[in-house]
Write a structure and sequence with these properties.
Layout (H helix, E strand, L loop, with lengths): L6 E4 L3 E6 L5 E7 L2 E2 L9 H4 L6 E4 L5 E2 L2 E5 L2 E5 L8 E2 L9 E4 L2 E8 L2 E13 L3 E10 L5 E3 L2 E7 L2 E4 L2 E5 L10 E2 L10 E2 L5 E7 L3 E6 L4 E7 L5 E5 L6 E7 L5 H7 L6 E3 L4 E12 L7
């Protein structure tokens, strides 16, 4: 079916299947034939339910921003809601058709549709025997500075143990509190363990630029390593999905509102011709316990 052609990049152990025509997203990630991501049986389901499958890029912002008209930097933003709670979520490129721009490279140009700047996002992807390597780059192609954010939104299948080495957290992504609080109770994920159900929060003050995951049933461990630009990790564990989202990103929830209010964790101003980068490596290994990967 047009628009759902798959691009496969693989080594002997790791196979990454991308959908360039549906947001340049990862449809599937398999280690020794075992699925790590929440992958639908039909690729077309990504288009019908874009927020809860695979792994997709978020740009030029992540998480929620308020809909409607707002003047920022002398330009008028006028965005329509795209999520069930009435917000505008996860940017503009997660469903846009991306071009295959070279060996392991995808690219998309965006802007308009209520976002008064133009930009380009590129992905350079490589697979080795032990890792999936992703490099995202958001380039401001406008004549004026642009508010910018960048992230990746993967859904990892349960049963899953999670470790986020963070000292503080925004304890909800819905109410969008101004400041992070010290972790405690269910928000303290500094030790590898099952994430409590129905959390949806953002962690920061990371002591290490990584997240550790363990597929308990397979005995497969994953280290999600990322560049220092990813100073926030959103994680969500809806009981209804059988998966956990673990999302490195460059800003806190409500990044545009934070920019307007002068709060920490805002979208950053990206000068014309400047780029924001986010590098990630998903490093896999086989651990004791669980099945054989």
């Amino acid at each position: 079916m047009a628009g759902f052609e798959e691009l496969v990049v693989a080594s002997d152990r790791i196979q990454a299947t991308l959908l360039p025509g549906v947001g340049g997203r990862l449809h599937a990630l398999r280690v020794d034939g075992q699925d790590l991501l929440r992958t639908p049986a039909a690729a077309s389901r990504h288009a019908r339910e874009p927020f809860h499958w695979g792994a997709y890029p978020m740009a030029p912002w992540c998480n929620r921003i308020a809909p409607g008209e707002t003047v920022v930097g002398g330009r008028r933003i006028a965005l329509e809601p795209n999520f069930e709670d009435g917000t505008v979520i996860h940017g503009q490129v997660f469903l846009a058709p991306w071009d295959v721009a070279g060996d392991g490279r995808l690219a998309v140009s965006g802007g308009g549709d209520g976002w008064p700047w133009t930009y380009t996002v590129t992905l350079d992807l490589a697979v080795t025997e032990s890792a999936l390597e992703l490099r995202y780059r958001l380039l401001n192609t406008s004549d004026d500075p642009m508010p910018a954010g960048l992230g990746l939104h993967p859904w990892f299948r349960k049963p899953l143990a999670v470790r986020i080495p963070a000292d503080r957290a925004y304890r909800t992504n819905i109410d969008q509190p101004a400041h992070a609080e010290p972790v405690g109770g269910p928000f303290d994920l500094r030790q590898l363990g099952e994430m409590p159900s129905d959390l949806d929060a953002t962690w920061t003050d990371l002591t290490e630029p990584l997240v550790e995951l363990h597929r308990v049933d397979l005995g497969v461990g994953v280290r999600l390593e990322f560049s220092r630009t990813a100073t926030y990790v959103v994680a969500a564990s809806p009981a209804s999905l059988g998966a956990v989202a673990v999302e490195p990103q460059t800003h806190a929830p409500d990044g545009l509102g934070r920019l307007l209010r002068g709060e920490p964790g805002a979208l950053e101003w990206l000068d014309p011709g400047a780029a924001l980068e986010l590098d990630m490596r998903l490093v896999v290994d086989v651990r004791d316990g669980g099945g054989t990967a």
